[in-house]
Amino acid sequence: MSPNRLASFSVIALLAGGVAFAQTLSSGPVTPAAAPIAPTTTKGSAAPAADPRATIAKKIDGIKPDDVRMSPVNGLYEIARGSQIGYASPDGKYVILGDMIDIDSNANLSESRRRTIRERLIETVPESEMIVFSPKDPKYTITVFTDIDCGYCRRLHSQIAEYNRLGIRVRYLFFPRSGPNTDSWHKAEAVWCAQNRNDALTRAKLGEVIKSADCGADNIVARDYELGHKLEVDGTPAIFLSTGEMLPGYSPPGQLAKYLKTGQM
Question: Do residues 237 and 231 lie in contact, with contact meaning Cβ atoms separated by under 8 Å?
């Protein structure tokens, strides 16, 4: 497809999806954008113009001025909620949902921004609050949102030794797809409260019932679950690379190792 046709197609797609942006944004903190220089006035001058960031924030529920920053396109503002990216006119009257592409470089500017946000959001969780399976000298680190009852999650974990052998360090976070107060949720709590979490996770994924004393794990599971939604996880396993790139679904050890090394599946 020629660059001109690609540009036309992208604009049409963005306009078609824009209406839904305000209705579909997930909740949660975002990476703050750099604040613009505040307008100044002198005695007798007109009142400063309203900050477009504040204007846009008033038009879209849940958006704060710090969630808005100038986009690479003059006069178009970027809106970020979780890892979702959209664009708005300075008056907040028009919103576009979709990816912004730099035609000259063929770079997806929206995805680049999403990866930065994902990386920062995942970094808010200390590794001491993850379940980590690591080789002695890891070459790569991935973060995986997992559901104990998910078939492909179990398949991935059944090959954890091979991932490790290939130099891949796996950090687990919980994402029980069935939601709070369900069997999958309680299984995640039991694993977290076990004395040996790694062993408990392995046994749970083999179908064993894990019995642990209550340790307040609901806060951990709920935190992971909320983070998953901010990162737009809608299925498991959801694999995040150290760059912030998301690979939805199961990836065999050899295939994943090749991608981590070469960028090609």
Answer: no
- Whether residue 114 lies in the annotated active site: no
Active site residue 150: yes
So what's the pLDDT on residue 48?
Answer: 64
pLDDT confidence band for 257 (50 / 70 / 90): very high
Q: Does the annotation mark 115 as catalytic? A: no
* Separation of alpha carbons 201 and 192, rounded Å: 8
User: Of 118, 150, 169, 193, which residue is the catalytic one?
Assistant: 150
Catalytic residue among 67, 81, 115, 153: 153
pLDDT digits (tens, 9 = 90+) for 61-85: 778 999 999 999 999 999 998 899 9
Query: Which one of 69, 177, 193, 224 is the catalytic residue?
Result: 177
Choose the CATH number for 127-262 among 2.40.50.140, 3.90.180.10, 1.10.357.140, 3.40.30.10.
Answer: 3.40.30.10
Fold of 3-109: Nuclear Transport Factor 2; Chain: A, (3.10.450)
Whole-angstrom distance, CA of residue 130 vs CA of residue 146? 11
Task: List the catalytic residue out of 147, 154, 169, 224.
Answer: 147
193 is catalytic: no
Show me where the domains of the chain are located: 3-109, 127-262
Cα dihedral: 51, 56, 58, 61 (round 10) = -150
pLDDT at 243 over 70: yes
